[in-house]
């Protein structure tokens, strides 16, 4: 056992063997939460970290504290953390109630971002959530800065999770708090519980997380006011869509999130909440940029958002690269172009869709930036448009056709792939539909050429080929599987089944028609073959009679008479015959 492991303190409630850093649930972590803690926590305070937290969060807390202690219930986890941080961090193995009974001095800062689910062991009393909060308040000083996380049982990811309850929860099953009636289920109840134990004046953030990583932290009042297409809603939806890659769902989570935002309930349906007491956050929004660990912070300033993206650039490995410098300092507070396009498509307003597509094309061609346009991140700015917070840029010098084709190819996947309502025929999908949208944007459609073979691609395939490659590269950069490896939600899977069944029915009809046509043609070919055989027999007979006639004496006599009849000067002909006969007789006699 190393010196660091010997330095681990043990209080009542330790668990061994056990680990809270593996299994169904890992430790809470992430750059967005780390940035929030860095802004909130004071410098030089005596700090306690309760529950499993990632190394990045522990490092951020230790860097701000004068004395830092970490409480985990697993002895093995405590030993590993002691080896990692050494003398900078005092690691305690045991339960929260055991620490409260140990008589240690109160702490000026308490960080429990993982919540109170994993703070007691199998030897601890059966404490409900309120009793655990009492134990937490017992180790806090009166003016302590407290960061407390709470999982939301009414979250969209939980409501749409298609797994049964026994498969949904992990390490907290020693004392299942999701069935605890004292557990808060709203921000109002959470603040009331904090006030009960003397932790007054707290503010809350709505946390939209992927597994144990908060991807978007929105001030609760801001999330309650967010509407579909606006920046807070877009960040929340992106985080929930990323969460759908690890949680099997019943229905598309983006539709439900936008519906909640439309009803003003987005703050009631996040993955969880984060209560901050005693500290003042610097920003209203902390978010991890999609596909990159850079942190985006934003604050409302009238009708615009002041945005800062802090993160290193990513060296180009393919068609795209991440460049935080291209994100504008201010982003309009309006909705995105995609939101309007979806509305026009659902209303079957083709003229309005064509007009908006034309304006988007004119705006895109007027831009000199190499940012890859995304209609879900291009914001309506009065009569024009503006780039949002996307920092993905193209590496090569792409043409305006390729950039627009990439934007429309991505829109095609988000419109057709999610089975949204639209006015275009069901057979007009894929490259042909993207090419039609490009034509609306001012890119002339290629002239169609007749197919020379059955598998000859259409002209639209070449027009949108590079755009589809850029859209696929963007999907890969954003962490969206483009190879179909992601398991779809049940609603989408059923819709795909219905679409496949309809296509099978249509193909069966085509096959039946082709079989009938082939049958008719087979009969016609058989009739033609029979007639050809009869004609061939007749020709053979005629040729045989003709040959027989040519070999007969009568034919020779007729031929001779015919030739004699063609003589024009009989006397001259007779003289020639006479001379030839004499010459032959002379040759025989002589």
From TrEMBL:
Coiled coil: 490-552
Domain of life: Bacteria
UniProt keyword annotations, A-Z: Coiled coil
Protein name from the UniProt record: Methyltransferase family protein
Gene source species: Kribbella lupini
């Amino acid at each position: 056992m190393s010196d660091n492991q010997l330095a681990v303190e043990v209080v009542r409630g330790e668990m061994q063997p056990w680990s809270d850093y593996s299994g169904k649930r890992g430790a809470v972590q992430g750059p967005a939460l780390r940035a929030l803690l860095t802004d909130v926590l004071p410098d030089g305070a005596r700090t306690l970290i309760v529950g499993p937290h990632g190394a990045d969060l522990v490092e951020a807390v230790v860097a701000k504290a004068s004395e830092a202690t970490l409480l985990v219930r697993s002895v093995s986890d405590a030993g590993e953390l002691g080896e990692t941080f050494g003398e900078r961090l005092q690691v305690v193995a045991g339960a929260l109630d055991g620490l409260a009974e140990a008589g240690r001095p109160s702490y000026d800062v308490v960080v429990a971002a993982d919540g109170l689910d994993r703070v007691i062991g199998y030897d601890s009393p059966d404490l409900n959530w309120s009793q655990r909060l009492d134990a937490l308040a017992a180790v806090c000083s009166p003016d302590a800065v407290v960061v407390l996380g709470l999982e939301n049982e009414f979250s969209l990811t939980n409501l749409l999770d298609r797994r049964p309850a026994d498969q949904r929860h992990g390490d907290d099953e020693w004392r299942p708090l999701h069935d605890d009636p004292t557990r808060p289920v709203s921000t109002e109840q959470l603040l009331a519980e904090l006030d009960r134990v003397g932790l007054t004046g707290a503010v809350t953030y709505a946390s939209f997380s992927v597994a144990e990583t908060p991807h978007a932290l929105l001030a609760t009042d801001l999330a309650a006011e967010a509407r579909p297409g606006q920046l807070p809603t877009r960040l929340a939806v992106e985080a929930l869509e990323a969460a759908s890659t690890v949680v099997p769902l019943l229905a598309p989570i983006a539709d439900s999130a936008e519906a909640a935002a439309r009803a003003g309930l987005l703050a009631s349906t996040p993955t969880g909440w984060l209560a901050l007491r005693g500290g003042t956050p610097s920003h209203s929004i902390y978010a991890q940029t999609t596909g990159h660990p850079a942190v985006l912070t934003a604050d409302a300033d009238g009708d615009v958002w002041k945005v800062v993206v802090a993160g290193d650039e990513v060296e180009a490995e393919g068609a795209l690269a991440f460049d935080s410098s291209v994100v504008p300092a201010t982003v309009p507070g309006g909705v995105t172009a995609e939101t309007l396009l979806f509305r026009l498509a659902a209303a079957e307003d083709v003229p309005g869709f064509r007009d908006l597509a034309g304006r988007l094309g004119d705006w895109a061609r007027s831009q000199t930036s190499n940012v890859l346009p995304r209609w879900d991140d291009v914001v309506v700015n009065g009569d024009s448009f503006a780039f949002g917070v996307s920092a993905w840029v193209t590496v090569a010098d792409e043409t305006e056709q390729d950039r627009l084709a990439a934007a429309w190819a991505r829109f095609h996947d988000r419109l057709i792939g999610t089975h949204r309502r639209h006015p275009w025929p069901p057979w007009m999908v894929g490259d042909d539909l993207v090419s039609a949208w490009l034509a609306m944007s001012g890119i002339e459609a290629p002239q169609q050429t007749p197919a020379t073979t059955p598998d000859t691609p259409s002209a639209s395939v070449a027009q949108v080929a590079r755009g589809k490659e850029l859209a696929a590269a963007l999907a890969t950069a954003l962490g969206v599987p483009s190879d179909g490896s992601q398991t779809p939600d049940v609603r989408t899977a059923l819709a795909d089944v219905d679409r496949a069944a309809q296509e099978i029915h249509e193909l069966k009809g085509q096959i039946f028609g082709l079989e009938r046509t082939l049958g008719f043609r087979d009969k016609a070919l058989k009739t033609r073959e029979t007639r050809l055989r009869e004609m061939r027999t007749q020709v053979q007979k005629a040729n045989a009679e003709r040959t027989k006639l040519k070999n007969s004496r009568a034919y020779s006599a007729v031929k001779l008479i015919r030739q004699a009849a063609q003589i024009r000067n009989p006397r001259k002909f007779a003289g020639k015959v006479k001379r030839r006969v004499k010459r032959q007789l002379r040759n025989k006699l002589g």
